[in-house]
Amino acid sequence: MYKSINEQTSQYCSFFQCDKNLESNTSYLNLPSTRQELKAYEDRNQTHASIHQKGLSISSKDTFLLSTVVCSTKLTQNVDLLGLLKWRAEPDKIRQSLESLMKVDGEEVVKFLQDTLDALFSIMAENPQSEEYDRPVFNAVVFIIGLIADRKYQQFRPVLDTYINEHYSVTFADHKLAKVLKDLLDSAGELDSPTQLLQALKAIEYLFKFILRSRKLFVALHGEATGRQGFEPGFESSIREVFRPSTG
């Protein structure tokens, strides 16, 4: 038997044997559970007798190591990811936070997938007329899509689909994402390394899911007529331009 340990640490815990009539008794919880506590207990009582009298016997040879980690499913402890999630607190470090995301362990990113994507598109939404952060946000989105494509995290693919269909809310990201993709394709011959382009092409399925979802949200907000007469030509043009370098 052992007493619960709530600290974020490692402890060598003690084993106790008990009589059957004590199986539903919780008095053992007040007994020493670790080597350190047991030593202090013995020093006070000078013997194991008091433990035996409670119907418990302690094994002096057997112990086991219990390691506990305090974690949160809502608040990350990763400094780089936390900097991105709280980007409004330090707006002058947005670019640094976006670049630092690429260094974060994939397991931490997928754990906070919705919060991370919300932060990325909030940065884009905060600067609708500016292109300053369009490329780094695009790269970060591609990075996340690439993680989900990895076999290790493929179980999060439905989570990403749910996010796009139910939580994503930026109405003009289609033009921004399409433009960055177009620029990347146009400059393909000038790139020192094709890695960035290849990563974007591998992520193109979900990039277009974001683009199309953004388009649908725009139409839902402004109406079908506005979408067809005022916005549709520009939307179609931006999509055509994306593929022009690869088909022409």
Secondary structural class: mainly alpha
**Lateral strand order in the biggest sheet:** 1-2
Give the overall shape: elongated
Separate helix tally: 12
Q: On the 0-100 scale, what is the average pLDDT? A: 79
Portion in helices: 55-70%
Beta-strand segment tally: 2
The parts where pLDDT drops under 50 for at least 5 residues are: 1-7, 227-231
Tally of distinct domains: 2
Describe the model.
- By secondary structure, this protein is mainly alpha-helical.
- The chain is 57% helix and 8% strand.
- The chain has helices spanning 35-45, 49-53, 79-85, 94-100, 106-111, 113-126, 134-149, 157-167, 173-186, 195-202, 204-222, 224-247, and strands at 10-18, 56-67.
- Helix 6 (113-126) runs antiparallel to helix 7 (134-149), helix 7 packs across helix 10 and helix 9 packs antiparallel against helix 11 (204-222).
- The model is unreliable at 1-7 and 227-231 (pLDDT under 50).
